[in-house]
Design brief:
Blueprint: H1 36-44, H2 59-65, H3 73-87, H4 96-99, E1 102-108, E2 114-120, H5 122-143, H6 155-167, E3 174-179, H7 184-187, H8 190-200, H9 205-212, E4 216-220, E5 223-227, H10 238-245, E6 257-261, E7 264-270, H11 271-288, E8 298-300, H12 304-313, E9 318-320, E10 326-327, E11 330-331, H13 335-356, H14 361-372, H15 374-383, H16 391-407, H17 416-421, H18 435-457, H19 470-478, H20 494-511, H21 516-525, H22 548-559, E12 567-568, E13 575-576, H23 582-585, H24 590-609, E14 614-616, E15 631-638, E16 641-648, H25 658-661, H26 667-679, E17 687-693, H27 702-719, H28 724-745
Parallel strand pairs: 1-4, 8-9, 16-17
Antiparallel strand pairs: 1-2, 3-7, 3-8, 4-5, 6-7, 10-11, 12-13, 14-15, 15-16
Helix pairs in contact: 1-3, 1-5, 3-5, 6-18, 8-9, 8-10, 11-12, 13-16, 15-18, 18-19, 18-20, 20-21, 22-28, 24-28, 27-28
Length: about 750
């Protein structure tokens, strides 16, 4: 059993001789002027779910208070004045320890010890975001290309590309040094930090002086700890303040290759220059509060003589061969380093796959897509030529195995169903991207975006040298299609490259469709709204959490994967094949009624939420045959007429519809809309009639999409929810998939056991 975490009640100053510079108002430039627009931008920049600090105010509270449905002029005016006061350095001194303090959470490190996580007051973070946003571009221009950790778009990627280019160019007389500092952010001297802020960013000085000229209070359980050294954790300006402080190193370093990303420094050059710079780092680092961590500092070189010479000045450093070198988590050496990194990624993926198997299918599928698969690998794909390593295919194979385990669907090697699954949702897939497919596009986009900055980082002799492996990447990207490469600014955008490969893969699947049913499925899945259920969060209280079998059936229907053993429908006696689409159109299927009722209930409740009362199964609107529409609004919808709607969910795969379904996405729904209009045309003189047709595949007819956008916009005006249309489509899509699952499984005698 692990021992309980321990934190000290007091914090002994690391630098007792610190001398905080005084605040001299007369010599400072005017601070920025805060506007309501700045406040709104800063509030919206808080990530969803951000925690609150000691004051208890959460960023979400502010987000809710500035919603479109709320009169925000008074609030924004007050917040603007308050933030202006804070940025002017006029926070009352007695309140500073609390206002600039934070709640502290202690987490156990894997290697032992404690990792403290601090969350500051929301209003303090808001003020820092306002001034940080105002000065970010200015500070980025000041820091680059030496320091890429703040205000430099794509800075980490440029650092990796530059290091690889330099590593591949130097000879046996040179080496690369990766610096590591002990607890750098928490150890930096505040007096030196304030002096650098005064020198390089004087408009920040009033605010930073009020926050850092005296200790702040950290609250941990029932204890308080005084924070008197280092950058305050949770301060949005923390990275900038650290970067400004270590600028003191820059003028004294002599190595021909120098790049820092926050506290990760990389130096390259002759052995003499590196030994000189090590002495500078130790001397100046001590002055500003940094201590070099020899055990984690790396020496990268290919010469025994160079290695021994550097180690004489840094005996505890790690020695890494060129081929195995990495930087910022990405391999910069040869294929060997790439393969090693990919093996580590595969091992982590295996562990995560085993854990995901214990979760509900809906939760696990979302986590794979949005967190644990490609998002974890993307930095490596963009910064290293991973397509050169066979380990990338191994990664995809394990990913396929995990998805198969989660969904309980078998994906044979190179099967069309798995190829489709790896396409984006908008292109008919599951959005679980293939690393092999994405790798060339990611690397080409990153190198194109980073080239100018890389050539500013590397020595002059390398500034006309193209970045490595771009030709190989473009050759891999061009395989299987004849489209030209993106040009100009588009080369820097991964979507520009990826769009071509995705479109090519989708077109090949459509061309090779073995039968009309497969073609109809592929066309329908390419409709944007057909995959809305894949984006729905599994929230039970909103009715969006889908059962495991519902997800399995939905995935199988979308990808054309076998769902059941061939059998005879227990309702009508028809033969049901392995794809199990018969149940979607079987007239005796109970799932069809469930799907229809759920669609109408969602439309009815959404109208009510949009302040448009409505009734289901209205009397007085019957046709001669006794049939009546599904609902009517109680108040006029448009031009003084009440809205009448009637919903239907035709089956994309029904034999009678296949000819239409193979012509275009949503063609079956459009046909159903026309039939509904003909059926209830007699209402047009007194009512506004709209058909609602959503196919079993999820594709909607054009009239249906027009109505849903209109309804979503009305709901947005009422509730202030920007994503109202998206959420409405998700609810309807989930309802359709639930009905589909009931219909498919209902063809067996024991649907619950399938």
């Amino acid at each position: 059993m692990k021992p309980p975490l321990q934190l000290s009640r007091t914090s002994t100053p690391l630098h007792p001789n610190s001398a905080i510079p005084p605040l001299q108002e007369d010599f400072l430039p005017n601070p920025i002027s805060v506007t309501a627009k700045d406040i709104v931008k800063a509030i919206r920049s808080f990530p969803n779910g951000s925690a609150g600090g000691p004051d208890g105010l959460k960023p979400q509270h502010l987000k809710d208070m500035i919603g479109p449905s709320v009169n925000t002029s008074g609030l924004l005016s007050a917040l603007s004045l308050f933030v202006q006061l804070v940025l002017d350095g006029r926070t009352p001194a007695p309140w500073r320890p609390f206002f600039f303090g934070a709640n502290l959470t202690a987490l156990q490190k894997k290697s032992g010890g404690v990792r403290p996580i601090a969350v500051g007051c929301t209003l303090r973070r808001l003020a820092a975001k306002v001034i940080g946003g105002e000065l970010m571009d200015e500070m980025g221009d000041l820091l680059a290309p030496w320091q890429l950790g703040y205000g430099v778009r794509g800075g980490s990627e440029a650092a990796v590309h530059a290091a690889r280019l330099y590593l591949q160019s130097f000879d046996t007389s040179k080496a690369l040094l990766k610096l590591d500092f002990r607890n750098a952010f928490n150890s930096i001297r505040r007096d030196r930090m304030l002096m650098k802020v005064l020198e390089l960013a004087p408009r920040l000085f009033r605010f930073v002086h009020s926050a850092y000229s005296s200790p702040s209070t950290l609250f941990w359980e029932d204890k308080t700890i005084q924070s008197a050294e280092g950058v305050q954790q949770g301060d949005p300006l923390g990275p900038l303040l650290f970067c400004l402080t270590i600028q003191q190193l820059k003028p004294q370093l002599t190595s021909e290759f120098q790049v820092f990303y926050l506290d990760d420094g990389t130096l390259g050059g002759s052995i003499e220059d590196l030994r000189h710079d090590l002495r500078v780092v130790e001397k100046v680092g001590q002055e500003i509060g940094l201590q070099l961590n020899e055990e984690k500092t790396e020496v990268i070189c290919c010469s025994q003589e160079a290695r021994e010479s550097v180690l004489s000045s840094l005996p505890g450093a790690l020695v890494v061969e060129n081929e195995e070198a990495t930087l910022l988590g990405s391999p910069i050496g040869g294929v060997s380093a790439i393969s090693t990194t990919l093996r580590e990624k595969v091992a982590a993926l295996k562990i995560m796959g085993g854990r995901l198997a214990h979760l509900a299918t809906h939760d696990a599928l979302l986590l794979v897509k949005h967190s644990f698969a490609l998002p974890k690998l993307l930095h490596c794909l963009r910064t290293a030529p991973c397509f050169l390593s066979p380990g990338l295919q191994e990664y995809d194979n394990h990913l396929k195995s995990i998805v198969s385990e989660i969904t309980n669907i078998h994906f044979p090697n190179e099967s069309p169903s798995w190829i489709q699954a790896t396409l984006p949702v908008r292109s008919g897939g599951l959005g679980i991207r293939s690393a092999v497919q994405v790798a060339p596009s990611a690397y080409l986009a990153s190198t194109a975006a980073s080239t100018d900055l890389v050539h500013r980082i590397v020595p002059t002799r390398l500034r006309d040298v193209p970045l490595p492996n771009c030709d190989e990447a473009e050759a891999r990207w061009s395989k299987g299609h004849s489209h030209p490469s993106p040009e100009g600014e588009a080369r820097s955008h991964q979507k520009s490259w990826d769009r071509v490969t995705v479109t090519s893969a989708a077109d090949k699947l459509l061309e090779s469709a073995p039968d009309p049913r497969a073609r109809a499925r592929l066309l329908a899945s390419s409709a944007k709204e057909s995959g809305a259920w894949l984006e729905a969060l599994p929230i039970s209280s909103l009715g969006l959490r889908m059962e495991d079998q519902t997800i399995r059936v939905a995935v199988g229907l979308r990808l054309g994967a076998p769902l059941l053993s061939p059998h005879t429908c227990c309702h009508c006696g028809s033969e049901v094949d392995a794809l199990a689409t018969h149940g979607l159109s079987c007239r005796r299927s109970q799932g069809r009624h469930h799907r229809h009722a759920a669609m109408n209930n969602i439309i009815h409740r959404t109208l009510v939420s949009a302040n448009v009362p409505s009734r289901l199964e209205p009397s007085g609107l019957e046709r001669a045959d006794g049939k009546r529409p599904d609902g009517v609004t109680v108040v006029p919808w448009r031009r003084g007429k009440h809205l009448v709607w009637d919903a239907t969910s035709p089956d994309t795969f029904a034999p009678s519809y296949l000819q239409s379904a193979t012509s275009a996405a949503g063609a079956v729904a459009a046909l159903a809309e026309n039939r509904k209009n003909a059926k209830y045309g007699y209402l047009d003189s007194t009512y506004t009639f709209t058909p609602i047709a959503i196919e079993s595949s999820g594709a909607c007819g054009p009239l249906t999409m027009g109505f849903l956008r209109d309804l979503g916009n009305r709901l947005k005006l009422t509730t202030g929810e920007e994503n109202s249309i998206k959420y409405l489509l998700q609810r309807l899509s989930v309802a359709v998939q639930r009905g589909n699952a009931a219909s498919v499984l209902g063809t067996t005698n024991h649907p619950s056991s399938v």
